[in-house]
Design a protein that fits this description.
The chain is an all-alpha fold. The chain has 23 helices and two strands. A hairpin with a 5-residue loop joins strand 1 (450-452) and strand 2 (458-460).
Length: 544
């Protein structure tokens, strides 16, 4: 397991409190560690020159959660599979070899690692697209079911699968086009108006999420506002809260000046308060998710005020929100483990719980380090404790995936955001004066972001703008480490320059093309934007 190997290889015995390995992860130099070291010595060292070569890539629950393993949990998800790919439909479409092959590939794809196929904007030719590409195979299956029963359940399911695939590849334009193809076939439940409202809202929220990730927050905000203005939404509190969250995230992305700063927190606060009032009606994990985003909104507000007024804005409100979120999450965990649920459903719920736990603890560690950088007195022990808990939560995600996996397809599965957690751990070591250990952890984090390019050289392929921000910050953290290191300052400065170029290239390829005088909202956004989660109702309902 990745954490086990990393802890064995990189963590010395005198580690900061909170990062000490658990008793069953011994820190010793055994044969497996020696083999891992030999493998790493054979790999090319990551330097500024190698980064310059990187190529960028382009509230009734559903009947079962068995479709959740098709695509592992990620914040990129459109959340359509539980509604459009129920178990009986899944069994039907998997009879086609093309569909079975795609599903097998996606079950093995870790949400924290890059997709294997580089992405490009739809207007650019993609030389990597072949007859065996997942999207091509799904399109063949769609053509088959379209001839057999156009608009039938299998046809809808395949369109939903293709939209989800494009979404996770960062091909948002194709995801939106596929979603538009699916919309006319949505069944009309004349005798079940609530079910009709739920399906229509699922599609609308998915469309809003694509617009948000595609750098069109105005369109995302318009869709979410329309949902909130619908008086019928009182029947679906979770969907209403999801729209309120979408409104909040859209305004956060749009915020550029001081006038925007004073309004960015209100939608996030309203979403949180609404969910707290309806918590008894909602599945576990929803309220902690709201605390996660509210804390991020507080950080973004503080950063805007600090940048525009040239004053220091405290981060205490954000830290309090994330701490409260952890408390709520522990309550959610008790609800999941004590309920009489089927084992698969319980384990799937715990994947979400531990993913949130990792993200909240990582944010608290990051916030502690940020406050220390401002005050000049970093509480490394406290930051290390949070970072250690984030690592442990990521470890639990791997355990849960293994519990769900009966065919050993998810052997190397990691929690989304795992490289970021390693980067934060590295910063704890750096603040403790252990630069060599920090570099080793950062090297591991950067390797997790890479895949093999067409020419055999390493390539960094992000799936969305939040992943671009995350990898930018990891490489910049390494750059700052190098610049603080005697005789490596030039290497660090060169790395920072290359990373900013890489960010611009990646965003240009995955976002909606804009004129030179138009604002690219995702460009240059602070690292905390990578922690926002535009969540979908079915991410919770499929496990409820």
């Amino acid at each position: 397991q990745t954490i086990m190997h990393t802890m064995k290889l990189l963590l010395p015995r005198n580690v900061p409190n909170g990062l000490r390995p658990t008793p069953w992860i011994p820190v010793r130099f055994d044969s497996s560690v020696r083999q891992r070291q030999q493998q790493q010595q054979q790999q090319p060292r990551i330097t500024t020159s190698s980064v310059a070569m990187f190529s960028s890539g382009s509230d009734a629950a559903p009947s079962s959660s068995s479709s959740s393993l098709v695509f592992p949990l990620t914040s990129l998800s459109l959340g359509l599979l539980p509604s459009f790919v129920p178990p009986q439909v899944m069994a039907s479409i998997k009879q086609l070899p093309e569909v079975a092959s795609v599903i097998q590939q996606q079950e093995r794809q870790s949400p924290s690692s890059p997709q294997q196929q580089p992405k490009q904007h739809q207007d650019a030719p993609n030389p990597t697209t072949t007859a065996s590409s997942p999207d091509v195979m799904l399109k063949r299956a769609i053509e088959i079911f379209e001839r057999v029963q156009k608009g039938g359940k299998e046809h809808q399911a395949l369109l939903a699968l293709l939209a989800e695939l494009y979404q996770r590849q960062g091909n948002f334009t194709q995801a939106l086009q596929t979603l538009n193809q699916l919309t006319p076939y949505i069944p009309h439940h004349h005798h079940e108006p609530e079910q009709q409202l739920r399906l229509d809202t699922d599609i609308a929220l998915a469309r809003a999420k694509i617009y948000w990730l595609q750098d069109e927050p105005e369109d995302s905000l318009e869709i979410c506002s329309a949902i909130l203005d619908n008086p019928q939404m009182a029947k679906l509190p979770l969907h209403f809260a999801a729209a309120r969250n979408g409104e909040s995230l859209s305004k956060l992305l749009l915020a550029l000046d001081l006038d925007d700063a004073f309004s960015v927190r209100d939608p996030a606060r309203m979403a949180l308060k609404y969910l707290e009032r309806h918590e008894s009606q909602l599945p576990p994990g929803v309220v902690p998710m709201a605390h996660l985003n509210f804390g991020c909104a507080e950080i973004i507000y503080a950063q805007l005020v600090s940048r525009i007024n040239n004053v220091h804005a405290p981060l205490d409100h954000a830290m309090r929100a994330w701490s409260t979120g952890l408390t709520a999450l522990r309550s959610s965990q008790r609800r999941v483990t004590h309920r009489d649920n089927p084992p698969e459903q319980r384990e799937s719920s715990l994947v979400l719980i531990h993913t949130l736990m990792a993200r909240l603890n990582a944010n608290l560690a990051w916030g502690t380090l940020e406050m220390g950088a401002t005050s000049g007195r970093t509480d490394v022990i406290k930051a290390s404790e949070y970072a250690g808990k984030a690592l442990k939560a990521s470890e639990h995600v791997m355990v849960r995936y293994n519990e769900l996996d009966k065919d050993d397809k998810m052997e190397d599965m990691k929690a989304e955001g795992f490289p970021r957690i390693l980067s934060i751990v590295a910063q704890c070591y750096q603040r403790s004066g252990q630069a060599i250990t920090a570099e080793g952890l950062l090297q591991t984090a950067m390797e997790d972001l890479m895949t093999g390019g067409d020419d055999g050289r390493p390539a960094i392929v992000a799936c969305g703008p939040q992943q671009v921000i995350e990898q930018r910050e990891i490489f910049l953290t390494y750059s700052r480490l190098l610049q603080s290191w005697e005789k490596r300052e030039a290497e660090g400065k060169s790395l920072a320059k290359d990373v900013h170029k890489l960010e611009s290239q990646q965003l240009k390829m995955m976002l909606t093309p804009k004129d030179e005088d138009e604002v690219v909202y995702w460009k240059g956004k602070s690292s905390i934007f990578a922690s926002l989660w535009f969540w979908m109702p079915n991410e919770f309902l499929e496990n409820h």
